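Following the same procedure, sequence and fold were stored together, as reproduced here.

>
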Amino acid sequence: MKRYSGLIVIVALAGCATGRLDYVPPSSPEPLANSKTINEPRDVVWNASVPELSKQFFVINNLDKSSGLINVSYSGDPESYVDCGFITSHFTNLRGDHTYHFPAAQAQESYQIMNGIYLFLVDRKMSLDGRVNLVFEKTGPAQTKVTAYTRYVLKRHITARNAGNNIPFSRDDSISFNSGGEAAFASNSNGDATTCVPTGKLERDILSAIR
């Protein structure tokens, strides 16, 4: 597992302080299981799937029975559906040791980092918009294959506030990737780029409604 680490050593008026921001990227994802085969005719599977999907927390955007396509979407907390590794912020000052450790895909986290001679208070938010195409294919007289193809769009909003002068600044970023793919946000000042991959749970959750 590759480890990215940035080390900042500062001397402040209050005494000696050190800070480090570490990033551990996600592990290589397992092969994506994004399809299932059901021993029923396509019409039977389709007719059973539409009401079942409607009961879930996904939103049905479009249905085209002739082509065997259903488009559904998910918007919200990304942590279950994408893996972006882990972030650790650690600093030591006259008040002691402080450590923040959290998944980089977490929906919201407030933490502190040292940057140069300054301490920053950071509020970090992540959100996911996932659009899924479900394709129903007839593979035999009484057999249907259903495949889920997902487009992931991750949005990150960071607000940082200088603890000394309380002046804030913010940054918005987004990345996108498909089922089985990956993407990385732009590198920060330490050269660390947060990389994200799908966990496969979004596809599994949707396919579990197909019977």
